[in-house]
Amino acid sequence: MTHTAIDDGERVRAGSELAAFSRALYERGWMPGTAGNLSVRLPGGTALITASGRDKGDMTAEDMVVVRADTGEEAAPGPLRASAETTIHSAIYRTTDAGAVIHVHSPYATAVACRTGHRTHLNSLRIERFELLKGLGLDDPTRTEVPVFPNWPDVPRIAADVAGHLAATPHAPPALLITDHGITTWGRDLAQARNRLECLESICQLLLMAGPELPAEKERLNS
Ligand SMILES: CSC[C@@H](O)[C@@H](O)C(=O)COP(=O)(O)O
Ligand SMILES: [Zn+2]
């Protein structure tokens, strides 16, 4: 099958699933305005992604665009434009075996991204000890380093940073932050990507609620 030969039934089934997940995330307040985008990998080297600039709480299967999974290029001319952040999804599809990618502007993860990110350099957020790390499917569920990328105005530049980091970091967690912007997670399907997103959003909430450490706590943690 070539990348343009998408079975219509498959496209509609995947599009309906994207629309349902998008609505649910919107209703949680994680896709304010028209923020956020979701995609799934399809057979034949393609992916289906939410159209750009749409209300993410009110999408249907017809509001999705077929793109090449490895480049983000639109597979066929049509009235809708693929998400402005499609190249970030493609960077993930190219360098991992992800079957689905979710990007949202959820408040706690975005706040942590704002506080830990750097305007021009890749940074990382070290997370240790939280039980919820077990929900990320890590090789070592006791600790991880979530990369925090600069929010370049040129999205393909963010995508190039992401692809470079993931290619060089085989045990990277299935998640990334973009400073002053939001969070992206991925998994074998939308449900797994959403579960991982929920774990990280909750960890970020706990980090913000728990810190900064009190001196007595520091002593206890270091003993
Ligand atoms: C509401 S502005 C947010 C956008 O700039 C972008 O970050 C975003 O998440 C949605 O872009 P989109 O092109 O609709 O997929
Ligand atoms: Zn965004």
Automatic annotation (TrEMBL):
Keywords on record: Amino-acid biosynthesis, Lyase, Metal-binding, Methionine biosynthesis, Zinc
Catalytic EC class: lyase
Free-text cofactor note: Binds 1 zinc ion per subunit.
Function, in words: Catalyzes the dehydration of methylthioribulose-1-phosphate (MTRu-1-P) into 2,3-diketo-5-methylthiopentyl-1-phosphate (DK-MTP-1-P).
NCBIfam families: salvage_mtnB
Similarity annotation: Belongs to the aldolase class II family. MtnB subfamily.
Recorded superkingdom: Bacteria
Species assigned in the record: Streptomyces fimbriatus
Pfam family membership, one: Aldolase_II
Cofactor: Zn(2+)
Domain Class II aldolase/adducin N-terminal intervals: 16-208
EC number: 4.2.1.109
Full protein name: Methylthioribulose-1-phosphate dehydratase
Binding site for Zn(2+): 103, 105
A single MF term (Gene Ontology): methylthioribulose 1-phosphate dehydratase activity
SUPFAM superfamilies registered for this protein in UniProt: AraD/HMP-PK domain-like
Pathway assigned to this chain's UniProt record: Amino-acid biosynthesis; L-methionine biosynthesis via salvage pathway; L-methionine from S-methyl-5-thio-alpha-D-ribose 1-phosphate: step 2/6
Reaction(s) this enzyme catalyzes, per UniProt: 5-(methylsulfanyl)-D-ribulose 1-phosphate = 5-methylsulfanyl-2,3-dioxopentyl phosphate + H2O
